[in-house]
Amino acid sequence: MINEQAPLQLGKYNRLEVIKELDFGMYLDGFDGEEILIPRVYIPEGTQIGQFLDVFIYRDSEDRLIATTLKPFATVGEFAYLKVKDVSKLGVFLDWGLMKDLLVPFGEQLSKMGVGRSYLVYIYVDEETQRIVASAKIDKFLPKDEIQLEYNQQVDILPYEYTDLGVKVLINNCKIGVIYKNEIFKDVKFGEFTIGYIKKVREDGKIDISLVKQGFDRIDNIKQQIYNKLTEENGFLPYTDKTDSEVIYANLQMSKKDFKKGVGGLFREEKILIKSEGIYKIK
């Protein structure tokens, strides 16, 4: 969201007026007498004094406010899955898409963060230093208000970490859940939002997530997936109840249990024939 009026929002997008031009860039009206430099490399061609630019505001290495038309991977107030570029005596630095990397102070790390690895963090402005920083202690930035989540509710999930149980995910930017390892039957890409479904909200508040909708709707989707694959493969698939589960997952992105349910449903609907060598689509 672009901020069109004062006060200036650090770590977010602002719409500011060009008020001065120099060889190395332009100055923008940052309100209250503040002039903010946008280096020439980031200025759109043809920009004139008096025009307004949509810019992201952050601090340079000398803590001066600076503007850019580059878009970081995330802004203040957002969660993001970012990669560690470097380690310093202050903490680790994350690549967030700008020339200046984003600091995670040592005190904001859950455990030692390594170069080349990616982590889920929350981006905020430190009240004492007024610098934009990030924290891997995401629990303290989740909403404290009770948020109602219902069985089979569709949610946006951001996978970010492996555990002994499976994969931890951020749910709707407000809750943490887990997809159990034996229920992951398609590629799950860390740092990319995808669709999930609420499978169970436990008494202790922990949330189980499924990648597919539960109940009959889910089986209908599975049947349709198998039938579509049959159509693509000229009406025959060489899979039976004796086929290895890994082969079924690799080719159909579903568990063997779901495959058998889907095949059974299609057979009862008289859409397929089941033979020793595989299944055939009835034309």
Automatic annotation (TrEMBL):
Entry's Pfam families? S1_2, WHD_CvfB
Q: Which residues form the Conserved virulence factor B first S1 domain?
A: 10-69, 76-132
**InterPro entries tied to this protein:** CvfB_fam, CvfB_S1_st, CvfB_WH, NA-bd_OB-fold, WH-like_DNA-bd_sf
Family matches, as Gene3D superfamilies: Nucleic acid-binding proteins (2.40.50.140), Winged helix-like DNA-binding domain superfamily/Winged helix DNA-binding domain (1.10.10.10)
Please list every transmembrane segment annotated in the UniProt record, as residue ranges: none
Q: Where is the Conserved virulence factor B-like winged helix domain?
A: 224-280
Family membership noted in the UniProt record:
Belongs to the CvfB family.
The protein in question is named S1-like domain-containing RNA-binding protein
Give the organism, scientific name: Arcicella rigui
